[in-house]
Amino acid sequence: MKSTYSNSRKTLCALAVSAAIFGPVTAVAEEEQEALDSKGLERIEVTARKTVENLQEVPVAVTSIGAEELATNGIEVLTEVQQFSPNTTLQRSRGTNSTITAFIRGVGQQDPLWGYEPGVGIYVDDVYIARPQGAVLDLLDVERIEVLRGPQGTLYGKNTIGGAIKYVTKEMSGDAELNIQGTIGSYSQTDLKATGQFPIIDDMLYVGFGIASLQRDGFGEYLEIAPELGKQDKENYNKDVVAGRVTVEFRPIDDLFIRFNYDKTEDESNSKGGYRLLPSLLDPSAPVPDSVYDSYTSLPTWNKVELEGYSLTANWNFSDTTSIKYTFSDRDSYSPTNIDFDNTTQRNFDVPAIYDDQQTTHELQLNNVGDRHKLVAGLYYYDAESCGQFEAILEGLGAALGPAFGIPDLVNGGFASSVTREVSGCSNGKSQAAYAQLSYDFTDSLSVTAGGRYTKDEKRATVNNGLVWDTVYPESGWVEGYQRPSDSDPVLPVGFPVPSVLDDSEDWSKFTPRIGVEYQANDDMMFFASFAQGFKSGTFNPRATFAEPAADPEDVDSYEIGMKAEWFENSLRTNITAFSLDHKDRQYVSALPVESGVDLNQILANVGSSESQGIEAEISYQVMEDLRFDVAFGYIDTEFNEVVGYEEDTNGEIVQIDLSDRYTVANTPKYTFNFAANYTLETGIGDFIFNGNYYYRDDYGINEIDNLLSQDGYGLLNFSVNWFSNDGNWYAGLHAKNLTDEEYLVGGYQFVTVDENGDYVPGTGGDNTLIGYYGDPQTVSLTVGYQF
What we know:
The chain is mainly beta. The protein is 5% helix and 55% strand. It has one domain: TonB-dependent receptor, beta-barrel domain (Maltoporin, Chain A). It starts with a helix and ends with a strand.
């Protein structure tokens, strides 16, 4: 039988080295040390309720994945976390490598255009990340990832009607450290990372840093590129990321902690070309490719995402029971991108675009802990500007309509042979909130939690939308030799510059409550039940064609009952939650009657509602001292119960109809399942940790209306072996992912319909545009690192 010291040394070594992979090592808290010295499961601490608590005492459905588990599984980006959280979807969006699609329990946001609000909040150290562009974060300097399922409308800043993803970084230890790590792998993967920290003033002032270069060739290539673009990089699904950070921590006195963070990321991975699921009707050089990672394009293949931000956190423990925390952040992102919707060498439906975002947040929070209560209260302020512009280039349509309607080409003479719809504008928003949540122990076994948040959102939107009878790009130089006409040019194509169609503002306010009851049956078992409400801001249509009113906020009412228990001297942990939610006032573009009640207009409005019921189970079993099994299971039954639409009847009158049978709750498989095993082997040359997991996702749809893109159920098999030297300096990890090389859809574009005979009918752009984007193929990587 192994000694307690040997097991503790081994685990602490793994923790220290895995922490070095992701950032500076922190001191292990006393309670964590006690857990490590025991033979049972490790104690897990979370901040799901804005205060440090034991996972087993938190009456919230939350998954926590620590630095050790992330490192030994070779998890490199945020999207891989979905495997370990039931009923959760975190995937790279369509058209880019760094835009996230996030859904929890069937609630999320499909469209990443500026102006729309996410349904799942992404937080880095309690700083809300407003836009999905760049939110596929590479995991650096991480202590843990928390996935909170269900609306978090009381304690969290904005838009968490589906849940919240929390990226929690480490505090520095104060010791001088330097860690260097390199990775090589499939598709010429070459990653280099260096992290370190050093004290400026012992026990008071520390500085940390991190820099990473993450490079990989594409999984596929652009088989054909429009010849007029000249030489282009043909890599598709490649990776070219450089990231850096600087952290300063200051402890002038024992009870005051101040942290300053600065980070910058430049992602110059190519635009992601989609896979044509149908051969092109208009471009004979664009048949269905042999590989799902190959594509065609008539746009430049470059893409860019620039992220930069800084934050300041100050925490003052001014008594043994009370602390005050202030967090400030300022973030900017800029992303020019090329999205070829039809994925051919012709400009049938090309969309070059620019996203430009800036946000500032302030949060003041009070924590108070007494003998029988815990109180969290605070004030929150958010101010953001989200702007953008895109050109929908439709040359085929222009060639047909220009001569037919006698549209002159004022630049080249004759008739116009191309048309571009240009849309630009801003969606500027402010959010102010006050919140409080109190947990009170009436007895040693019975507790009640009650909280509420009052939110006031303000939004001002401008939209410019119009046709340009020419091929137009967002800026000069977008395509080599192209010069965009200026507004002062006396000879301009018809409709350029485009008109302003909307300039309006609106505000909304909402009180979102949470109430729950918890019963501690014994030291190892807790039952809980709760009701919570979530609120997602109202918004204006960023593609508006006239001065349409704003859509009101979306609401989610959620009910949960659950049990958290540990069995057999803490060797078996079972956390089970059943839930039901009602998602109301869902925002969709639909045909609605204008004030006259006769004509129909496409307008963004609150026309949908859906409901979901399900169950989630997370089970961990420490079979023996060196072997652990983990299971995560999710089941959800979700459907639209109403989608309002209108049509003209045989008498010429507008009548209301229900369109719910045409809608699908996207990105939400009925079942998700993950089984993982972890085994540790001690040898004379160091400790080896073997782990593997099998992750299954049931069938799911990609699009919400008239969906033609569906992914059958599939499973991913992953395996890793990690080695840690006895001196704690060297470490290595071999990681094999998607061993069976499964092909699976994670996104798509659908601009085609099916007629009553089952034949495809071309949509926007005049082509059979049914495009899929796929998850990563089989990859193998080897990481080697040394910590000084």
